[in-house]
Amino acid sequence: MADTSDIRKGLCIEFNHDTFAIVEFQHVKPGKGAAFVRTKLKSVTTGRVIDHTFPSGHKIKEVRVERRKFQFLYSDDMGYHFMNTEDYEQVTINEKMLENPKLLKESENVDILYDSAKDIPLTLEMPQYVILEVTYTEPGNKGNTASSNTLKPATMETGAEVRVPLFINIGDVIKVDTATGAYKERV
Length: 187
Hints:
By secondary structure, this protein is mainly β. It is built from no helices and 16 strands. The mean pLDDT is about 85.
C-alpha cells in the first residue's frame, strides 16, 4: 500500500474496482484546512478520464506494472496487432487503449505496460515523436496570409490528418508529436 505522497505521473493504481493511470496531479496545501492531492486519472481498460481529489495521507493500492517492448504490425477490425520484440509473441490491443492510433506506422516500436500480477496489457505508450511522410496537402501560396503561423491540413502516410505550415508539400517528411498530434518540424 502506498499513500498520496507516492503519487507521480504514470503511476498505476487500483481505484473503484478498475485500474487507473495518473495523468496529472497537484499537491495542494491551502492556508486553512488539510492538504489534499488533486488528480486526473485515466482508466487503462476503458480510456475514460476522471478527476478525483485524495485527502493527504490517503492509502492507495499501487498496481505493479512491467514495461515490454513491442513492434506495431498492422490494424484490422479486431484491433491493433503488436509483436513482442524479445519472444515474438503477438498481442491485440483495442483502439480505445491508444492515444493517437492514426499516428502509428507499421514497424514502429512502442512500450506496452502489463499488470505484473495478472499478466494483462494495461496501456500503450507511443514514442514522443513519429516521423511521417505527407501524402496529400494543398499547395500553399506565398502572400495569402497576414501572419506567418498559418496552418493547412495535410494527410500523412498512415491516414492521419495533421495541421502543417504552408511551406510543407507532398512528399515532405515531418516530425509529429504523438501526445497532441501536432506538427513539430520538417525532417
